[in-house]
Write a structure and sequence with these properties.
This protein has 231 residues and is α+β, with helices and mostly antiparallel strands. 35% of the residues lie in helices and 23% in strands. The chain has 2 domains: 1-35; 38-230. It is built from 8 helices and 10 strands.
């Protein structure tokens, strides 16, 4: 009887041991994932990391922000959300891309007419953004085949739904403190757009600002995209 009891105890003990070993493996796996930098560890994004100054670029924003052209506020956009814990400054070397990304977007999709209220123009200003002297940015370059090279979903830069882009930027911002932002091709014009994390805007400088309605390229842009300005 004692032998059977001891055998049962040993069996119960043996049944418990695999569970403890499994938990140990799980803990080691969790530590490995944490130490490797999450889904986009350094070795994974290294092929598309670049260090270079951002070319002089245009930013379009609400008129109330003109006194602080490098400022950012919590908002839902391609690479951040209102409650995500960080903000992003967007700028494009070409004024046309800045205008289309900010004002036009997909609003004319499936419509016969392309109309923009005049107040949407008069309520905005533009700013010319450049770099501080000798400053450079470390950027994740998602232009061209950048997403494919690092296994990121192409929706990160190409989708109308911004969920993939926000998840990607959140991971990069959290796991790579030295990365200043992302450069990518606009899905609307194909031209470059720079998305600079708020922690790095100190590397930027504002060279010039003006009313959007007075920008010298605006008439050509309105004509190019067949935009009608309405009251």
């Amino acid at each position: 009887m004692a032998i059977r009891e001891d055998g049962r105890a040993a069996a119960r003990s043996a049944q418990g041991r695999p569970h403890r070993r499994s938990a140990g493996r799980g803990a080691r796996l969790r530590r490995h994932v944490h130490m490797s930098g999450g889904p986009y560890r350094r070795s994974r994004i290294a092929p598309v990391l670049i260090t270079a100054p951002m070319p002089a670029s245009c930013r379009i924003m609400a008129r109330r922000h003109r006194p602080d052209p490098l400022g950012t506020t919590p908002a839902d956009s391609r690479f951040c959300t209102r409650s995500g814990g960080f903000t992003v400054l967007y700028a494009a070397p070409e004024f046309a891309t800045a205008f289309v990304e900010t004002v036009v977007r997909d609003r004319f999709r499936g419509r016969q007419s392309c109309e923009v209220a005049v107040r949407e123009i008069t309520a905005r200003v533009w700013a010319r953004i450049s770099m501080q002297r000798d400053a450079v940015l470390t950027l994740v370059d998602l232009r061209g085949d950048g997403c494919t090279r690092i296994g990121a979903p192409t929706d990160t830069v190409n989708a109308r739904n911004h969920a993939a882009g926000r998840a990607f930027a959140k991971a990069i911002h959290a796991d790579h403190a030295d990365v200043d932002g992302i450069v990518y091709g606009s899905r609307l014009t194909g031209e470059d757009v720079y998305a600079v994390f708020d922690r790095s805007t100190e590397k930027l400088a504002s060279a010039e600002t003006g009313l959007l309605e007075d920008h010298p390229e605006l008439p050509d842009i309105v004509k190019r995209y067949g935009i009608g300005l309405v009251a």
